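User: Second chain of the day. Same drill as before.
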Amino acid sequence: MPVSQRPSCARTAPGRVPIVRAILAALLTLAGGIAAGDCPDRNVLHDIRLLRGQAPASTDRHTPEAGSEKEAERSVDFEADSLEATRDGEMLLKGDVVIRQGGRRLETRNAVYDSRTQSFRVDQGMEYSDPALRVSGTGARLDSQGAAIFDSAQFELRGQSARGSAARIRASTGGELQLDDVRYTTCPIGNEDWVLRAADIDIDQNAGVGVGRGVRLDFKGLPIFYTPFISFPVGDERKSGFLFPSFGTSSRNGYSLSVPWYWNIAPNYDATFTPTWYSRRGARLDSEFRFLNALGQGSLQANILPHDQRTGVQRSQLIFSDRSDFTGRLRLDINAANVSDSQWFEDFGLGPEGTSISYLDRSAKLTWMSDRWLASLYAQNFQTVDSAGIDPLDRPHTLLPQLTLHGSYPDQAFGLTLDLDMELANFRHNVAAVDSGWRIDMAPGLRMPLRGAGVYLEPAASWRYTAYRIDDVETPRDDSPYRSTPLFSLDGGLVFERLSGSRQQRLHTIEPRFMYLYVPYRNQDALPVFDTDIADLNLVQLFRTNRYVSADRLSDANQLSVGFTSRLLDAATGQQFLSATIGQAYYFSRPRVMLPGEVLDSPESSDIVAQLDLRAYQNWSINMGVQWDPGEIRAEKGDLRVQYQPARDRVANLGYRFRRNHIEQVDGSFGWPIAKDWNAYARIVYSLEDEMILDQFAGLEYRSCCWRLRFVARRYVSDRTGNRDTSILLQLELNGLSNVGVGADAFLERSIRGYSFDAEQP
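Assistant: Same format as last time:
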């Protein structure tokens, strides 16, 4: 069967194949090396003949003159303790013999050069070396046409800790290579924990194809993979074929076995088909088609379970994405997704995060940009995944279409900047009781950015006009409501700096900021709500001109937002060690604009928001954010993350997340060497709100000199009702070859913040 390696992108050649590409490249170098169409030229042979019967006892050497570097690379020179010419046209090179060609070198005791066939023959132990490869064997045949034979070859790839053997290596003049009784491993001499064996391998350089027969992979003396026939690409070319299988187990789906097949359709098109068998659900087929063209790239994924043995129905998932750059200024992005049922992500997702997927986005966006303008045409709708849990009245509108336009002209008269934001959108809803219609929103404005040493000030004024055309409105309600509102703001700040530290190596800053905002009240109760919601309060939102997201509501305001930031940096490099920010808004009048169902209290100020990022110590980092209600004297929202990481493969994390009446979770994880060649991993996510563990896993890794084995056991909440699933991840990584099993390394890197398997362990 053909075996291949699926590349990461359709234009990218694969990095590893079951028969390792590095060994093929090195052996091809060997085959085309000293005898690749080159032997001593006739001038050299003439000089050698003059030595007949006159060879001195000391070493003789002759190097031909080269007319160019290229000729020097092709030409051959040799050394021998003595030379002897025979009557039948052979030259005997006796004693210690060294044959060189460029960076290639062959050493042996005694060799024969046949002037009639222009070939070398070595009938005893020899050693060959070049920048990529070292080979020893019991004999060799090299001719001037590029043909070569190496007997009982032992080879070692330089810089890759890889070695192997072949009973015979034959290289033909037509670029064909044959290897008999091949063995390959990356384990050191004396250790063959894993070995790749093949009865024979045939490589055709011209066709870019290799064929292996009787291929077997042994681990600890036990065969774990076998195929009577494989076909693989040579060089950087891709080839269709099977990838390594993977297997796993979970309490929800049972045992699973996947055998991917890669299809190299064209240089810019490829596809991967992955049939998977689940012991509790039956057969599933996943497919992914990827493409590249002059405009951009995209992919299409289709996953289907024709008959779920547990539910008795057909199930599927579809994902499509495409990005096309028509010009340097015009781009099209398309994203679409669909699932057959609300349980798909719970059954085949990645864990508890699959239970929180409520909608799938389907959108297309055409974007045009210039030096002054940015325009987009956008269409969007959603699939409601949790169709049973979300009331049809609460589902989002379809946007078909939305046209947005943003323009900016800085450095106009008196230092003014002219801005224009505009939107025209059509909102549709499939429930008649929910408003559908058109919305136009315009916001022309003027700003005057003023900058000085350690100070900035920006007065701004704008006017926002929003109008609607609502479908099927019953009288006496107005079907064309609108809102027209001016906005005024003054944004400014200071930056104070001073050097600190015993050697003045630290830069300490204090950066106060303020923004006064005035927006007069406009009654907006008659306006529909298509896509507007309350924005989360944070340090960015504190200095925005609207506390709502989107255009259906514009909050009235007469307020002053104040913030203070302090930083500690390296004065030479600018590296930040500490950043602390705190901010709050003070209301001179109570906001009156509300969304339907929103409850407004009457505070004199907003909640206090603060953020701390600390990296003052080499291995420690602390990130903390909080939203504090000074009226109730309590936190409304907060998060804390502490990380200790002395190396990329040594990390411990502790986190806490809180949102009043919604979430309160503790998250701890680590990845750490616990003994020589042993690593341990663990994570736990505990909900204080629900008093239950949401996700937990523990794992071990054993690292040998040429392989790794990872084992991870995981138990997590897999659906909205709190049911749990147990899964086991097992991965065997053979250095320089491939991985067998499921991707435990990718799962651990995704789950343990900051951990990396690329790091070398000390």
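Helices lie at 21-31, 42-49, 69-74, 344-348, 744-751.

User: Great, on to the next one.
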